[in-house]
Amino acid sequence: MTFLSYLISGLSLGSVYAIIALGYTMVYGIAKMLNFAHGDVIMVGGYMSFIATAHLGWPPLASVLLAMVVCTALGIVIERFAYKPLRAAPSLAVLITAIGVSYFLQNAALLIWSSNPKSFTSIVRLPSLKLFDGELTVSSVAIVTIISCIIIIIALTFVIGKTKIGKAMRAVSEDKEAAQLMGISVNQTISVTFAIGSALAAIAGVLLCSAYPILMPTTGSMPGIKAFTAAVFGGIGSIPGAFWGGLLLGMIEIFGKAYISTELSDAIVFSILIIVLLVKPTGLMGKKISEKV
Amino acid sequence: MQMKLKLTGTKRTRGNAITYGIVVLAFLLVQIVDGTGNLTSSLRGQLVPICAYIVMAISLNLTVGILGELSLGHAGFMSLGAFSGVIVSVSLQESIVSDPVRLLVSLVIGAVIAGLFGIVVGVPALRLRGDYLAIVTLAFGEIIKNVINTLHVGIGRNGLRISMTDQASLNLGEGGTVIIQGPIGAVGINKTSTFTAGIILILVTLFIVLNLVHSRSGRAIMAVRDNRIAAESVGISVTRYKLTAFIISAALAGAAGALYALNYSTVVARKFDFNTSILVLVFVVLGGIGNIRGSIIAATVLTVLPEMLRAFNDYRMLAYAIILIIVMLTSNNDQLKQLIQRATSIFRRNKDSRHKGEESTHA
Amino acid sequence: MPSTSKMVPVPSRAIIPERDLNATPILEVSHLSVHFGGLNAVEDFSIIVGRTEIAGLIGPNGAGKTTVFNLLTKVYQPTRGAILLDGNDTAGMNTVQISQAGIARTFQNIRLFQSLSVADNVKIGLHNQVKYSTMSGILRLPSFWRSERRAHDEAMELLSIFNMQHMANYKAGSLPYGAQRRLEIVRALATRPSLLLLDEPAAGMNPSETEELMANIIKIRDMFQIAIMLIEHDMRLVMGICEGIAVLNYGKIIAKGTPEEIQADPAVIEAYLGQKKEA
């Protein structure tokens, strides 16, 4: 029974990582950059929802919506002013700029909301589920998180595969110049990608804080790093890779904490990552890119 | 296309001499300012950390700039050097009474341990490409931080004891000293680092890195960076030279870590985390990838800057972030660069007219 | 400049220059094949190259010529066949070992060390010819100073083949196209090969540059007494200096012989029909 409860925790945490990882992988696939600030957009989402619920007294759905709207706008603005000017620059330069944005968001949050941890009220107000004659308690947050993740991945796969904007995204990620020659607005496509990624970050932030209700300016940092490794681990640029990478990472973390050691859980997670990459050097689902000689 | 003249033998030697000169000059300057009693205590406290960060930046530049591989776990090597340095320093407190000698031994051991782990990390990591290599170095950094955080180390009658669980299981017996106490880190360290030692370490680092770069092995490493396939085709073993650069880089970071740790009475593993790795990476990028002198200047300025921005108090980290973004944008975006160049063109007018003759001969 | 050496048939195999008859051929390839997925990129490729022969490998685009070079230099491992270099089997060797064994190459898309100087590019070619340890370099021991002096002198000597000494300190990436191609050849020569593989050395050159290149290739062969195999589309160059030519199409050899034989071969003409023949 405890195994099942760990499994659900793992899937729930993994779902959060997956949602975050999707944002990383989409942006990487299309803009070929690692958006270091992604983790901090999550934190902003958390704070937005917190303000809506605690200070404005809004209902859960409205606060989630607020978080999504703010984060989407934030993502688009960041892309437009910090990343777009560097499209032709070496990738290391963009990475450092993204780090600058990350620092900026963290310190702005520090100034506005101080470093005192905020107690986050979960957006899921449903009672927990009791199964198997009360032997297994499943928190409603976990259920909502897992279901959200599944809905998101299905919706995203549909958008990428079947819609016009999805096709544009795929085209731009394959060959930016060719896509442009075909009449696709590269700027718009990249903006939309950042918008979607940031909206997802907001959702992830809200779900993360609902499950682990302590909110600080640094809250997004570690999950961001872990989700980023999950995205690479699954094969950077691959949407199914981000999904499975995130889920797996969440499960490894929970099971590692439960069965091996709580203190060493991070070391375990990252060790498994390294081992997988040694066996599959381009990630679980990454494409093998061969160089023309 | 412009024929860009590269440094010839004598010009390069002059360039290197300037770099050494800057370091020595800075040392003398600080001593003078200190002698006249004008050195603020906060700045004096920064001296050793600045030296450590400079060595970190130079060593990371060896990996990122000279070898051309992104490493996101450099702080891990710093951490290994820091804690092994502390263990050595505390363990030898009775046997080696002289502080500078004990410091030297600590630095050397710190470098050796970090260098060995450079092999452990390098062998798997360096066979991966770009982003995946970066992730593995990040992962190793986190693993090192996590493991050291759970480590209990002590020295007693039976020699050095290590435990992953708790202090008691160390079984040190009477008269034993606990050096590392898990998450509490290392406490009660006898501070042996000095600014002079730091400057010497910087000079040694420069000697090693600059000499390496301007030698057969350095050329091989840069060949691997510029074109791996061509390097192999002329008989250069890519793995061997990647490892060489990586190990030297790790060892130097270890020495920096030991220097850093022995400057404080308490050191925790969490201090050497991903943020520190990123901090050093920022020094390297801002100073110019591959530009050793730039790393020294960037590390110094960016460590001192937050202190000097103290006037802004709470806003200083925000200002730091904004400055970082603006510097990155202006140095990498051509339009912004031109804007600035036009703005400062008044000062450049004389320089431009001299170059006019040379420019027109190019097709 | 037409070559004046006489080509002689070797029993049951290809033809090599008469002057090389008494020595082991520098290269003996038999039944070399490589498959990628379902595609037979190169199939049953056999060739013999004399010790000082200038050999040509031609064929329509996509015929597999560069793939043959990649096989010879072990960028790809063959799925079938043997490669003997100076009589020694190269099975199991990797690219680094092949370079040490004596095969050097240039690339279709120039692969120079762009950020390094012209001289450094050549010195890197000398990596395995003028050696000293990493430690020696760091500590600036006497062997460092001695070897660097030697490497510098040899690099200058090599650059003088193409009159490029004055460019020694220019950044390789800033050179004009033709100079970059020449630099690649110099770098390859620095490795003291016994077999030099040139992949489209005349690409992008005008007729007078091509003339100069033809003279230089013969000069290199005469100076170093090595074998040279080149891939080229410029027929004037190929027919002008190559002594033995192999024609590749769809991964298979369709003809082998002297320039005269090749030019008259109906299979070759057919393979090139529809392809622009360069005069």
Short description:
The complex is a heterotrimer of chains A (293), B (363) and C (279). Chain A is mainly alpha-helical and 293 residues long. Helix content of chain A is 72%, strand content 3%.
Structure commentary:
The complex is a heterotrimer of chains A (293), B (363) and C (279). Chain A has 293 residues and is mainly α. Chain A has helices at 2-31, 38-55, 60-83, 91-113, 140-162, 164-174, 176-181, 186-211, 221-233, 239-260, 265-279, and strands spanning 118-119, 129-131, 136-138, 214-215. Chain A has eleven helices and four strands. In chain A, a hairpin with a 4-residue loop joins strand 2 and strand 3. In chain A, helix 2 (38-55) runs parallel beside helix 4 (91-113), helix 3 packs across helix 8 (186-211) and helix 5 runs antiparallel to helix 8 (186-211). The longest helix of chain A is centred in the first third of the chain and has 30 residues, at 2-31. Chain A starts with a helix and ends in a 14-residue tail after the last helix. Chain B has a single domain, classed as ABC transporter involved in vitamin B12 uptake, BtuC (Orthogonal Bundle). Helices cover 69% and strands 4% of the residues of chain B. In chain B, a hairpin with a 2-residue loop joins strand 1 and strand 2 (159-163). Chain B is globular, with a radius of gyration of 22 Å. The model of chain B is unreliable at 353-363 (pLDDT under 50). Chain C has 279 residues and is of the alpha/beta class. Chain C has helices spanning 65-72, 95-101, 118-125, 134-139, 142-160, 177-190, 207-224, 235-241, 259-264, 266-272, and strands at residues 7-9, 15-17, 27-36, 39-49, 54-58, 80-85, 88-89, 103-105, 195-199, 227-231, 244-249, 252-257. The chains are: A mainly alpha (293), B mainly alpha (363), C alpha/beta (279). The A-B interface holds A 34, 82, 85-86, 88-90, 92-93, 96-97, 99-101, 103-104, 107-108, 110-111, 225, 228-229, 232-233, 236, 261, 263-264, 266-267, 270-271, 273-274, 277-278, 281-283, 289, 291, 293 and B 64, 70, 124, 127-129, 131-132, 135-136, 138-140, 142-143, 145-147, 149-150, 183, 229, 274, 278, 281-282, 285-286, 289, 314-315, 317-318, 320-322, 324-325, 328-329, 331-336.
